[in-house]
Write a structure and sequence with these properties.
By secondary structure, the chain is an alpha/beta fold. The chain has a single domain (about 5-334), classed as Rossmann fold (3-Layer(aba) Sandwich), CATH 3.40.50. The chain has 11 helices and 12 strands. Strands 8-7-6-9-10-5-4-1-2-3-11-12 form a 12-stranded mixed sheet, sandwiched between helices. α4 packs across α6 (about 130-140). The two termini are about 30 Å apart.
Length: about 325
């Protein structure tokens, strides 16, 4: 059965979250008989440009070689990790911006899922600076699965995702998140819980003020009921939860309370200073949840179909001047 796990792209770097992403990506590929692609992005141009701006006359070859050697080492270690789960991963190096390379590669290779490590940074500076994971989350047209250091992953004796909690509200991204969860193979959603939060920060009108069963709670319950009806229309059993509070904190707490294996949440992918200052529920959940988080943007449930490599459709990576994938020592360059 074709699913988002049929071809998985894992972004590899030297961080602990990225190493955890490799483990989870390999386990998911093993569970679903999927392809695993490991990529590392190298961007040596800013360093070369800085040296040239200083007036130095340099040979860029040693710098480029050093970046590529480090990338090869990281990918080799990641492939060895995947092999422990019975997965023969393909490895690729992409030159240029990490976020651009990851997104372009995922699209060209018809991946159904991107798996990335996330960092639990905090403070206004983190919001303004951002990072590769946040950039990919805001722009990816396919679901992005994030893991951070210290999270809990299901024991290897069972499926990675058997108990899933989906955040639902009245937004279009929320609908995409629910559709993505409902489209998962049955073994990945043995227990499905839709959770709607009555936002404690949402302005209430006078009739609603101070009422525990006010309009905000009523709306949250209606959102949950719609999600349940959508699941039941497809013959999928689902439970619902309606809780009150700050959606960011409440969703994380509820997922822990439910002992969920995965949170599925929609994201608007907003840009600009307003998004940075106000923050994002999805980004907060990614940074703080003690379990993996699957972020879905509108339309991600209908991502490009998976295409498997074959003699007629070799796996090549026309991204950057030195992009390649390797398996069993073979190298393919664009």
């Amino acid at each position: 059965m074709t699913s988002m796990f049929s071809r998985i792209l894992v972004a590899v770097d030297a961080s602990a979250p990225a190493r955890l992403a490799v483990v989870l990506g390999a386990r998911l590929a093993h569970e679903h008989d999927g392809d695993l692609l490991l990529c590392h992005c190298v961007d040596w141009m800013p360093i070369i440009a800085q040296l040239e701006a200083s007036g130095a006359i340099i040979d860029p070859t040693p710098t480029v070689d050093a970046f590529n050697a480090r990338a090869t080492s990281l990918l080799t270690a990641a492939a060895e990790c995947a092999a422990r789960y019975g997965i023969q991963a393909k490895r690729g190096i992409v030159e240029g911006s990490a976020q651009t390379g990851i997104l372009q590669l995922a699209g060209e290779q018809r991946c159904g899922l991107i798996v990335m490590g996330a960092h639990a940074g905090s403070g206004f500076g983190r919001l303004l600076i951002g990072n590769t994971t946040n950039a990919v989350l805001r722009a990816s047209s396919i679901p992005v699965l994030t893991v951070r250091e210290g999270i809990r992953i299901a024991d290897e004796g069972r499926c990675c995702f058997a108990r899933i909690m989906v955040a639902t509200d009245e937004s279009e991204p929320s609908v995409a998140a629910l559709e993505t969860a409902l489209a998962l193979p049955p073994e990945d959603r043995r227990e499905l819980i839709v959770c709607s939060v009555a936002d404690a920060n949402r302005p209430r009108d006078r009739a609603d003020s101070g009422s525990p069963n006010g309009l905000v709670v009523t709306q949250a319950r209606a959102n949950a009921d719609r999600a349940v009806a959508s699941a039941q229309a497809q013959g999928i059993a689902v439970k619902s939860r309606v809780i009150e509070g700050d959606p960011r904190v409440a969703l994380v707490a509820q997922a822990a309370h439910e002992d969920a294996d995965l949170i599925v949440i929609g994201s608007h992918g907003r840009r600009g200073i307003e998004r940075l200052v106000l923050g994002s529920v999805a980004e907060y959940v990614v940074r703080t949840a003690p379990l993996p988080v699957l972020v879905v943007r509108t339309g991600a449930a209908n991502a490009l179909p998976v295409v498997h490599a074959s003699a007629a459709n070799p796996l090549t990576v026309p991204v950057g001047s030195a992009a390649y994938f390797q398996r069993e020592g073979e190298t393919k360059r664009s």
